[in-house]
Write a structure and sequence with these properties.
By secondary structure, this protein is mainly α. The chain is about 60% helix and about 0% strand. It has 13 helices and two strands; from the N terminus they run H-H-E-H-H-H-H-H-E-H-H-H-H-H-H. The longest helix has about 40 residues.
């Protein structure tokens, strides 16, 4: 009981210190908030009011995205023949509707029995279910615009991040992140890298609720929130060097996936009219590059060098610091999400080997995506397939939920 009371007292003290921004709780011994003052000569120390820039960049990113959607991404999508047709619902059927509303992926036996009850073939029922799942979906154009915006954002942050960090002493040596912690100043360009990264991820979090809802909706939301908290925490607690490296590593893989997604929504045909088009080839190449870079940066570099640095090297250089466990918890939360997404990427790669093409990224896209282009003819009658000859047109796609990973 005495040990439990002591633990409760320490937990209460830590909570109060956390909420009141107590110096010992946040910074550890020998450091004070008074040391966080602006410096001249192109370097500065973090200030709480700096986060006002994040609010500014968040609003600016949302406005620029709206502008680019209309003047850049929409014309580009039309040039690449991205579909603007809304998916149409199938013919109503009470028995099939009951199967759809069950929310479960039906087994072969259930498909067979339901098809018999409807008086349909199994193929017809499967196509009905696909059309029903896609009935509330949007056209491919908004998805194309979303992918283009994220590709532009991730690519810009990657280039800017490299420029900001390439001359720092800790870029290739994580131990340097902790040396001189007591008098930490950062270059102005690293400061702007932080503000832009936070602003972009904050804008993605806001637009996450209006963008296409994907199967990893909650995982991506958790990822965005954890990233924002982690980056803001590292800035506020003078952990800028290790925080900036974490941001940079998460930005490496994401642009490749967004390019693959955007091109996957196009309907560009090959010059000969048969075979794979240049867009389809680019989808497969970009997805392979994404998968390899994701596995290397998120499953090896991230835990081997960055989490290790926070866990071990920081203790060796500055000793144990009170907020270390919280920081490590956020890092490990992101790593768990990386493992989850890596498993889904493996599924896509495995499917690609079996089918001879990249069939889609199961992390995000709705299951009805492959029939999103089907429309009701001018006579108003629903097209209902009864044999394999009228099966849905398939094309390679690669989609994402959002490194990933980012970040």
């Amino acid at each position: 009981m005495e040990g439990l009371a002591q633990f409760a007292g320490e937990a209460n003290s830590w909570t109060v210190g956390f909420v009141t921004f107590d110096e010992k709780t946040w910074l550890g011994p020998n450091y004070t908030w008074a040391s966080l003052r602006d410096e001249s000569g192109g370097r500065l120390k973090p200030q709480p009011w700096h986060f006002l820039y994040v609010l500014l960049f968040t609003v600016l990113a949302l406005l620029v995205r709206k502008l680019f959607d209309q003047i850049l991404f929409l014309p580009l999508g039309r040039l690449l023949k991205v579909s603007e047709v809304m998916p149409t619902p199938p013919i109503p059927n009470a028995i099939a509707e009951k199967l759809h509303k069950s929310g479960k992926r039906p087994s072969k036996e259930l498909i067979a029995s339901t098809a018999d009850a409807c008086g349909w073939t199994e193929l017809k029922l499967q196509r009905w279910l696909k059309r029903r799942r896609a009935a509330n979906d949007r056209s491919k154009m908004p998805k194309f615009q979303e992918a283009c915006w994220r590709c532009l954002g991730y690519s810009s942050l990657l280039v800017f991040g490299y420029w900001a960090l390439k001359d720092t002493i800790y870029f290739m040596n994580t131990r340097e992140c902790w040396i001189g912690y007591e008098d930490r100043t950062i270059p102005i360009r690293v400061f702007w890298y932080y503000m832009l990264e936070l602003g972009f991820y904050s804008s993605l979090t806001v637009s996450h609720f209006s963008d296409t809802k994907r199967k990893d909706f909650w995982e991506m939301l958790i990822h965005h929130v954890a990233t924002i908290v982690l980056v803001a925490f590292s800035y506020h607690s003078k952990l800028i060097p290790i925080g900036s490296l974490i941001m940079f590593v998460h930005d490496i893989a994401d642009p490749w996936l967004e390019v693959a997604k955007a091109l996957g929504y196009t309907r560009v045909q090959s010059s000969s009219g048969s075979g794979r088009s240049w867009a389809q080839i680019c989808v497969e190449v970009c997805f392979v590059v994404f998968a390899i870079s994701f596995w290397i940066t998120r499953l090896y570099v991230y835990p081997r060098y960055l989490i290790y640095s926070v866990w071990v090297e920081s203790n060796e250089e500055i000793g144990n610091w009170p907020m270390q466990n919280l920081f490590l918890s956020l890092l490990n939360l992101l790593f768990v999400l990386h493992v989850f997404w890596s498993y889904l990427i493996v599924q896509v790669v495995s499917k690609a080997f079996k089918e001879g093409q990249v069939g889609g990224d199961s992390r995000s896209d709705d299951e009805g995506d492959d029939i999103a282009d089907e429309v009701v003819p001018a006579n108003g009658k629903h097209p209902v397939a009864t044999d394999a000859a009228s099966a849905v047109r398939q094309r390679p796609t690669a989609t994402h939920g959002n490194n990933g990973a980012s970040n």
